[in-house]
Amino acid sequence: MSLIDNINKAFDHRIRLGIMSILMVNDYADFNMLKELLGATDGNLASHTKALEKEAYIKVEKQFIGRKPNTRYSATKLGKLEFKKHISALEKLIGN
Amino acid sequence: MEANKYLNDITEIKNIMNRSSRFISLSGLSGILAGIYALIGASLAYVRLKDFSPTNYDGFAGRNSALWDTALSKDLTLIALAVLVMAAITGFVMTLKKSKKSGEKIWDSTSKRLVYNFLIPLVVGGLFCLVLMQHGAAGLVAPATLIFYGLACVNASKYTMGDVRYMGLAFILIGLISTQFIGYGLYFWALGFGVCHILYGALMYYKYDRD
Question: Where is the Winged helix DNA-binding domain (chain A) (predicted)?
């Protein structure tokens, strides 16, 4: 058993950690909210959300508010579980 | 080296969780000022009530009819409104200043959520107080305002600094106690809206605002 067994590669990036932390404590967040909180560019954020979506860690809903398209993100059950594992792995790592 | 990077990650995670779910720019100093306004208002109301000549009335009947003396109740309402408006303006301006400094937006989803959740119990309480007056139970208005304001604070505390919760609980306690001392509402108001706000504001100022 290695110490880094539970470190999840899918979360191993500043922006991805940020996306997941926001979605852990908020029911959902839209693209602009994530962008503002993380200070990421459109393209950067889009590619990281896509990666997390591919792992089924986050759910993406596209809708229209009036005539403006709006993309809403929320964490899936699996995503929350994996993120918690990842965090406790990090904490163990620091503790050692 | 690695461990350091992960430590930074964890700190960042905590920070982002707080920033994204709680509005943390409430100004402590404005709490102190709101309390001071409330104490000034209460002393003005006290003077006005003392001025009110009880010679035409006596005892319990006097206390009751005081509530229906239109000039008196108009003055008291004016004092209360002035305190409310002053406190709201001060709170808004100082919170705006603080949010600029901390780079937090004043009207985003976190502050909206805070305001909505604060207003729900407060508006219900306000309507309930009108009903109390409608049924001639004006003596219960002061305790009701304290209790509902406390509930509003407890409800809002989930979306801002957690300490607001304890101030809310203090208000609820003061409100419940005051139900047993009808006719002394003004003193309990001064204790709650004055003293409690000042104590809370000072605590917040030392904890979060002082850099």
Answer: 15-94
